[in-house]
UniProtKB/TrEMBL annotation:
It is found in: Membrane. Residues 204-330 form the Integral membrane bound transporter domain. This is FUSC family protein. InterPro entries: Memb_transporter_dom. It comes from Cryobacterium sinapicolor. Keywords: Membrane, Transmembrane, Transmembrane helix. It is a multi-pass membrane protein.
Length: 346
């Protein structure tokens, strides 16, 4: 039995379990108080639990605190734009600031993932969901409470390890990741080049999605940010392929769940399973992880702003493909520029 438990460490069960609890508990509370329409704010606050995996606790506290703080800033910015009915140029300017600050923070504090995908997702969804002015503070407080719970859960392993002591030490996953603090990251030309790639990509993808009248244009933007690599990471075309194929298959899974019109409790169960499966697979196979990420994201979007399910599913596939194509074009362009530069230097 002990050996079996040891073998399960490789599946990141500890990380996946606390991430699922972090998102499910706030959603259950919202159902009980009759405000499941606030699900997006709880879900984005809970995303703080996705940071700091495999990091020693003295460093994890810093990582999760920084991630949680900027997630809340992103939610607050999106909420403010929704309440004020901000124009498209203001929304785009805010998006550019979120991307720039998100990449700078990730590079400075060694966040993983090193892309601003969760910050961008939180900002855009909260900006798109209609919100009356008198509910701005309560909705934001839901995100704050959810982020606080996620912080506590993410740090809970410290107490568990202290109580277990040496007797059960082998049952716990090792914590080898050491995030590097780089205060001078804002001076790194590669960081700013990555920011430029993301800004160009989201403007192209978002502009194309709006011009052809596709609903939920933020999916195209999120797809670009998800595919483009962080600073100094390899530019890979396979990631775009994995995202498109994984999303299509994930949409098929989501259709089986949403089309029958399940109860809200079933939807919360789907979110819990999606969060758990995504955390298990995200470090092993990106395409397979999207079989869980896609139902998770679509179910949260459906709870926050219900629309016809077929429309939601079609929009997701079309815009993910659009964002993926834009990201591929940027990757190919960067590769071409790098080859030309190498030839000139040679």
């Amino acid at each position: 039995m002990l050996e079996r438990l040891k073998s399960l460490r490789a599946l990141d069960l500890e990380v996946a379990s606390r991430a699922s609890i972090a998102v499910v508990v706030p959603l259950v509370v919202l159902v009980l108080v009759g405000r499941i329409d606030w699900a997006a704010y709880a879900s984005f606050g809970a995303m703080a639990s996705l940071y700091g995996r495999n990091e020693p606790y003295r460093l994890r506290a810093r990582t999760v605190s920084v991630a949680a703080a900027f997630l809340l800033v992103s939610v607050a910015a999106g909420l403010a734009l929704s309440v004020t009915g901000a124009s498209l140029p203001v929304l785009v300017l805010g998006l550019m600031l979120v991307i720039t600050a998100g990449i700078l923070l990730a590079s400075t504090f060694g966040l993983f993932p090193g892309t601003p995908i969760f910050f961008v997702f939180a900002y855009l969804v909260c900006a798109q969901v209609p919100a009356p002015a008198h509910e701005l503070l309560p909705r934001l407080l839901v995100a704050v409470a959810s982020a606080a719970l996620a912080w506590l859960l993410t740090m809970s392993g410290w107490a568990a390890r202290r109580l277990a002591g040496d007797r059960f030490g082998d049952l716990f996953k090792q914590l080898p990741r050491m995030p590097l603090l780089r205060p001078a990251a804002f001076r790194d030309a590669q960081v700013w080049f990555t920011i430029l790639q993301n800004l160009v990509g989201v403007l192209l993808a978002g502009g194309l999605a709006l011009s052809v009248g596709i609903g939920h244009p933020y999916w195209a933007v999120v797809s670009v940010v998800a595919v483009l690599p962080p600073p100094r990471a390899a530019h890979s075309l396979s990631r775009a392929g994995h995202r498109i194929v994984g999303t299509v298959l994930g949409v098929a899974v989501t259709a089986l769940v949403l089309l029958p019109g399940p109860s809200v409790w079933v939807l919360i169960l789907v979110i819990a399973i999606g969060q758990f499966g995504a955390e298990i697979l995200i470090g092993k196979h990106y395409g397979a992880a999207l079989l869980f990420v896609t139902p998770l994201a679509l179910t949260v979007a459906h709870l926050a702003d219900p629309v016809a399910v077929p429309t939601l599913l079609v929009d997701r596939v079309v815009e993910t493909a659009l964002g993926g194509v834009v990201a591929v074009l940027i990757v190919l362009t960067v590769r071409g520029l790098a080859r030309r530069r190498s030839r000139r230097l040679a």
